[in-house]
Amino acid sequence: MGVNFEAIRKRLAAFDFQKLFIEELGWSNPPGLAPTTMTVDGSSIVRRQIAHLAGVVVFELTAGDGRIPDAKTRLTLHREIAKLHHEHLLIFVNADRSQSLWYWVRREDGKLRPRDHYYFRGQPGDLFIGKLTAMVFDLGELDESGNVPVVEVAARLRKALDVERVTKQFYRDYQEQHLAFLELIHGVADEHDRRWYASVLLNRLMFIYFLQRKGFIDYRNPTARDGNQSYLQEKLAQSKAQGRNQYFTRFLRTLFFEGFAKPEDKRSAAARKLLGAIRYLNGGLFLPHKVEQECPKLDVPDKAFENLFALFERYSWNLNDTPGERDDEIRPDVLGYIFEKYINQKAFGAYYTRTEITEYLCEQTIHRLILDAVNTPGIPGMTPARQFDSVGDLLMNLDANLCRRLLLEVLPGLSLLDPACGSGAFLVAAMRTLINVYSAVIGKIKFVNDGTLSDWLTKREREHRSLAYFIKKTIITENLYGVDIMEEATEIARLRLFLSLVASAESVDQLEPLPNIDFNILAGNSLIGLMRVDDKSFEKRMEGQLFRQRSYRAIVDEKNRLVENFRHTATYADDLTALRDSIDEKKQAAREILDDLLLAEFEHLGIRYEQAAWDEDEEAEGRPIKRSVRVDDIKGLKPFHWGYESDEILNRRGGFDAIITNPPWEIFKPNSKEFFEDYSELVTKKKMTIHEFEKEQAKLLKDEDICAAWLEYLRKCLKSPENADEWEWNGVLTHPT
Questions:
Q1: Domain extents in the chain
Q2: Which residue, of 45, 134, 271, 582, has the fewest CB within 10 Å?
Q3: Are the C-beta atoms of residues 509 and 222 closer than 8 Å to each other?
């Protein structure tokens, strides 16, 4: 039988676990045994068999005190029941049937390893639906006698419930897998680009994995969630059956650049046959990446994906990115942990900011902006003052005028910036804050008599199958902006927003193409660059450039227009890629001039450069050499020219409404082990003592090219001004208050 997601969801919500197993999962009715009372450590437990299949039994248990028993008692009960039924699943339920704990025990090397899975009333069912689909049996799986082998049923239970909690173990596993994956990427000579592409590919695969666990991949019914939850793994097996190491080149590239990047009618017949039902999403995530464009021989063998999917299968995956969810599953915010704990370079001062902090700061900031916009002074004899002390007070007193003001003016007009966005924690928190306000306003619209608002709501509901999806997409496109010095960070920040967006869809047909936010979240050093650009100075340096003799204003206006077209275009991948590349080409030409202007400002201020030096006799850093700043030094700082990049907001709208960020806590300082990971297999594998590492470092620096790269790395770091003669590094910065 097919998987009926909505029916499963209803059975879960009603805590009707017996009908869930028998009517939805295809298990058999129990043989009519009466409930049995067990006594463990003085506590009475009522055990009731609710389903069975091939000797595997499902029990529901309720304690006499109405609570779910503790871990010790649960294990004792398992041992007692195992004497009668070796393979079983225990479902503990509290007295008012509002909480349940699903308990399965793995036997390994003579040890018992319990697996706990919680389901509470009102909890989103996505995670449990994903687990339960592994337990579904249909008539086609029965043998001639109408039975299923017990080993198959036990294997299905193990597949569904044998998952580890998301702790530091997942991060360690992922780090190890990332390094192994990196070594298997072929056709990319540059080490930095190879690391970068490893992250790009892993990000795409995790995005798809979240979608397939929600039932949105290779679906049969777009109004349901009946997709293949093992899609990537099954396609890998099919690819291997047809030949070695074809999965990346023939399947994944087709999935990325035709499946997700093109509407179905624009795909080739071969692609449609190979991929199955794939929703067109785009959003920049599946446009050809810079590394893919520059490395035509790029390839990744099957082994890399076998290892990766083996890791993914050991954990639960839940696309819901809702505050307050449990920590025992992989959710989109795990991408932030991964980036800041393992992939990010700590020299850049990036640290993970806990959800409760990001959400508190965003609420306080955004709520104040909203209140400032709607609180108005009274005009004697005309209009009374409207003053709300809190957004909660405002939302409880909404009327048609306030709804119209918030929905059509205040909320769409907010511009929120994180200039050190990292993996997007503050941007996601800002989005959630705005969603809460939008939800209250839209809920009120249905009860106020206002033609403008009714027309707005009717039009949106007619154009979009999911109003929640439309609101999130609007916020991501119109309200949120970010900058980070690391391009990997900006890619993950965009991915976090995309995942949060698709999480709001309840069925495949509610998915719309992702917003094109490549130019909302940009890479660059937000602390260095031109805040304002002098038109005449720019135009003087334009000779021989791409722009020829056009005015600076015309150049910026054209860039703004193209970016706006890109942000709102509904076209598919080929046209979108060309538009993106055209914008990048124009921006790069402009940056050449802008960097020259910044260099002129540095020279005017008398800024000198201190270049690291190497003393061959001492085999150590020598006294730095002071010299004039060069344009290559400017480029090495990756300046972000606000006056050009954010012209529309800074010059046309007066600036961003709020800056919400957790700035770097340290100055950029050298980390020798981090640097040498790029040059030594021994360091990369991290199987060495400090003494062994130091010996490896000294040996590596005898290589002329590596020594030059090390000095180039050092020159980007900031020297402590108090100890200039000693060439010491300042690693302390007081946390901003």
A1: 5-161, 168-348, 353-375+387-415+424-517+657-669, 672-726
A2: 582
A3: yes
